[in-house]
Amino acid sequence: MPENVILRGRTLRLEPLAEHHVEALARAAAGDRGSYAFTPVPCGVEAAERYVADALAARAAGRALPFATVRVADGRVVGSTRFCELDYWQGPVPWPPAPRGPLGPVRTAIPDAAEIGGTWLSACAQGTGINTEAKLLMLRHAFETWGVRRVSLRADARNLRSRTAIERLGATLDGVHRAHSRGLDGMVRSTAFYSILDEEWPRVREQLEQRVGAARPEGASARSLVPA
């Protein structure tokens, strides 16, 4: 799987999700949970333990690269996000097409396509610009460090808040997969799929940098990438 990294921005730090984040994640999710109707967010320490264990298992299997979202101002964990559906295109063309792991050593593998998902923020961090800057950091890493051809995002078709946020990133709606799966509420859900391609990234990057930079104090440093 890709190497763990810390992605640093002006307002937040994305650091590799680990067991020591359990209690902080539980605290982050303990506030107003009204925005979590379509998003799996742990409730309580035991649920946070399972959440982290599942995320680390997905990382060990090469399926995901999960992060804890840390607010720079006070060092507080305010949520989580991840790269998932890591796809590798080397070797023979598989049939039927489906995401697959790397053919070579997993520790040095770099994906050709990825999805950003599993994103949630505590109520106190929503609407503060943290989500926008986090997406900028992740998209930069995917396109400029890994060199992926596509980054995908998805949302329950009913989740207008998430869909609006994705569209504001500059992602293109690929379509809605009707009756795609069972939703978090147990109902059959349709799923809206979005994507950003590598040739679209310069335009998307410029728009996101303008949005993030508009709130940056003069002299504030830009993000950096630090191997974890």
From TrEMBL:
Pfam families: Acetyltransf_3
Residue intervals of the N-acetyltransferase domain: 12-172
Signal peptide: none
SUPFAM superfamilies xrefs: Acyl-CoA N-acyltransferases (Nat)
Protein name per Swiss-Prot or TrEMBL: GNAT family N-acetyltransferase
Species in which this protein is naturally found: Streptomyces melanogenes
Organismal lineage: Bacteria, Bacillati, Actinomycetota, Actinomycetes, Kitasatosporales
